[in-house]
């Protein structure tokens, strides 16, 4: 058996053992730790096969797993490259860079192939999203994006150049890099630059609106990042709003520890961090009110599935209702903490209307907040995540 066929078999073994209950990345890491015979190249090829498989969603029913893997590779790779020995002349002739043409070829060979099942939830999308481009975006891995922190852009650019790392400058402070780039030993992550998706960075434009509305020389604004995770939006807020009185919370204690470590690297020393379940009444900050609350809500994550295609594969539609209800429960406890003349920045990395525009309508109707701006930041044509953000105001 050729090396390439044995990769297909190894990937098939992984796919059969994987149940979707943990990130694929973690599963593969543990699998390779258990099976030491795989060298680093083998791990790379097998992982690539697995990821390609999940990228095609449920478009290939009634096809054997090795065949599915071969088709997935064909659809997801722009060129056959090293995988060429797996394919006959006819397939190689149809190896276009345009995935739509390749899918037409597959449809002729496999009548059960359903490309519409790569992303089957098109009716649920936010209206401004181009459903076809979005579905196709799952076939490729997005870029790695970094945001240079204030004062460090030239230093970061110089370090990347010194290490011969190619990058494309975008926006004011964003660099796009190949997704295999290793930055750990090259730049001071979190201090000089943060790893942050292009559209996560774009949400800064709504934070800038809050900054612009602040009277000059006022006290540091009290900002609560209420679903902070490891603090990506907090650091962005700090960089845009400057001297803020920052409070960050999240449901999970481990993640708050990560946030503290990251803030240390980011030289953010003055802040308060605490654990809070926002589906429950808040006791810790009973007396506080905030002129700015950032709610980067837990969501389906559907705008980021081209990074984690196993989630695309294992998603079920009932989860949209689950997340929308969770978001309502969270909003219920944070809106009362918003000061009069305060701003709520509601964010998701979801593409579903029910988690996005419909949630904004709900917040406006239920709590009387006024909409300043809402936007889908689409990433599907830029090898980036798709995000949604709405800035609301309390009169
Ligand atoms: C989209 S992530 C936040 C990402 C983060 N803002 C960033 O920029 O990196 C959503 C966060 O909400 C947290 N979360 C989920 N359920 C929650 C709850 N009931 N109360 C508070 N936080 C919750 C999750 O732990 C998760 O870290």
From TrEMBL:
<keyword id="KW-0949">S-adenosyl-L-methionine</keyword>
<feature type="binding site">
    <location>
        <position position="296"/>
    </location>
    <ligand>
        <name>S-adenosyl-L-methionine</name>
    </ligand>
</feature>
<dbReference type="GO" id="GO:0003723">
    <property type="term" value="F:RNA binding"/>
</dbReference>
<feature type="domain" description="SAM-dependent MTase RsmB/NOP-type">
    <location>
        <begin position="132"/>
        <end position="395"/>
    </location>
</feature>
<dbReference type="GO" id="GO:0008173">
    <property type="term" value="F:RNA methyltransferase activity"/>
</dbReference>
<dbReference type="InterPro" id="IPR049560">
    <property type="entry name" value="MeTrfase_RsmB-F_NOP2_cat"/>
</dbReference>
<feature type="binding site">
    <location>
        <position position="277"/>
    </location>
    <ligand>
        <name>S-adenosyl-L-methionine</name>
    </ligand>
</feature>
<protein>
    <submittedName>
        <fullName>Fmu (Sun) domain-containing protein</fullName>
    </submittedName>
</protein>
<dbReference type="InterPro" id="IPR029063">
    <property type="entry name" value="SAM-dependent_MTases_sf"/>
</dbReference>
<keyword id="KW-0808">Transferase</keyword>
<dbReference type="InterPro" id="IPR023267">
    <property type="entry name" value="RCMT"/>
</dbReference>
<dbReference type="InterPro" id="IPR001678">
    <property type="entry name" value="MeTrfase_RsmB-F_NOP2_dom"/>
</dbReference>
<dbReference type="Pfam" id="PF01189">
    <property type="entry name" value="Methyltr_RsmB-F"/>
</dbReference>
<feature type="binding site">
    <location>
        <position position="250"/>
    </location>
    <ligand>
        <name>S-adenosyl-L-methionine</name>
    </ligand>
</feature>
<feature type="active site" description="Nucleophile">
    <location>
        <position position="349"/>
    </location>
</feature>
<dbReference type="GO" id="GO:0001510">
    <property type="term" value="P:RNA methylation"/>
</dbReference>
<keyword id="KW-0489">Methyltransferase</keyword>
<keyword id="KW-0694">RNA-binding</keyword>
<comment type="similarity">
    <text>Belongs to the class I-like SAM-binding methyltransferase superfamily. RsmB/NOP family.</text>
</comment>
